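To the team - guanosine-5'-diphosphate complex, inputs and output below.
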Amino acid sequence: MQKSKIDVILGIQWGDEGKGKIVDVLASRYDIIARFQGGPNAGHTIKFGGSTHVLHTIPSGIFHEGKVNVIGNGVLVDARIFCQETAELRLAGIEPRQRMKISDKAHLILPTHRLLDAALEARKGAKKIGSTVKGIGPAYTDKTARCGLRMGDIFSPNFNGKYNGLKAEHVLQLKQYGFNLEAATIDGMPWKQYEEKWLEGIEELRGFEVVSTEFYLDRAMREGKRILAEGAQGTLLDVDFGSYPFVTSSSTTTSGVCVGLGVPPSAIGKVYGIFKAYCTRVGSGPFPTELHNETGELLRQKGHEFGATTGRARRTGWLDLPALRYTLMINGVTDLVMMKSDVMDGFESICVAESYRLDGKPVEGYPDTESAERVEPVYASMPGWKTPISSARSYDSLPQEFKAYVEYIVRNTGLDIKMISVGPDREETIVNA
Ligand code: GDP
Ligand code: IMO
Ligand code: MG
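Output:
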């Protein structure tokens, strides 16, 4: 039998594009759904049957019976947050142990990683990244510094010794920063109490199947199993290609799938690039098409643009083609998926940035972070659609102006839009448009 390929779903803007929804929609076509990077900085929202679920660490295929969800080696796991997610799933009648495997090489986020994240952000002052403060930066730092703790370590007879050793290093660093450990809290509780819950979470994690998922995935591919890799964050937050330093600490791109799951580049099949019909960003950093007016506020209110992880208001703006062309190139996107078009229902007109100018000259390629703060987008404007689109289930039934918007994006990216999401619910989706 021919080895199967891994299809990829990833965000091609600044995160929160709607990856969770689309992974859930597509999960029925796959046998395995695997997260390859990021950690609980992610918030992936899924709506069906009148209920809403937000996942942070657990892959978005978890609601489908008979599917295997994999937390890959590239993912970071916070035992406490993981435990909260599993408790919520059980309340929804799902036993995650039967549907999930975790890589023995996935790194752990310690409570003190979260304190370090907070301390480092505070030291940055006005230059802060706007991190979700989930410990992502410090935990990936320890991974590359070769002193992190991994899932495999939780089964070591000396786990407590290893944990206390790394914690002591962190405490030392925190003291050097003059951080007030006595008064420190995490998620609204004294950090020592958080630590207790975190250690309970480690016990919960021990009940899961922790294996070398790279071998599991290789065998699955040889057996012809269909695999979907689920990205977190978005390409413009990638540690290399995002607006550094206002980025996350992982590779959010297609290449990240290979290192984050232990699969070869030749295993990559389709790459679904997910984008909103407009743009949002949460946290600091350049956002060329950002709107600081009532249209921006309208997008925020109608799109409920408040973070699924932190509740922070998301910055909003028009669709940005130079940024999209860049992220399509980096990822080798084969199929586009457009989200949240319904949010612009009733808009008189819609703008799209076609190019940038800097100091009066056209910008080639994609600008560096400092230039991206100063570029002036050159906009095209087109008429909006007046009929609400959320009840549409076929491309043909969509308003003419909306189809013109879709066709404009297809022309300007050279890629087909394979799915259009017209509302947050699983059902509110037009497939193979
Ligand atoms: P993710 O991080 O990429 O999975 O996206 P988030 O879950 O953080 O944010 C997407 C938000 O938009 C969630 O609240 C979704 O329920 C919602 N959503 C997804 N698709 C649509 C859509 O087509 N229309 C509307 N109005 N909301 C959507
Ligand atoms: P999902 O998977 C949107 C942003 C933060 C901050 C920067 C660094 O839901 O799309 P970090 O916590 O990683 O140190 O934060 O990245 N960020 C996200 N923005 N969606 C996300 O995930 C994000 N994860 C991190 O706001 O600007
Ligand atoms: Mg999100």
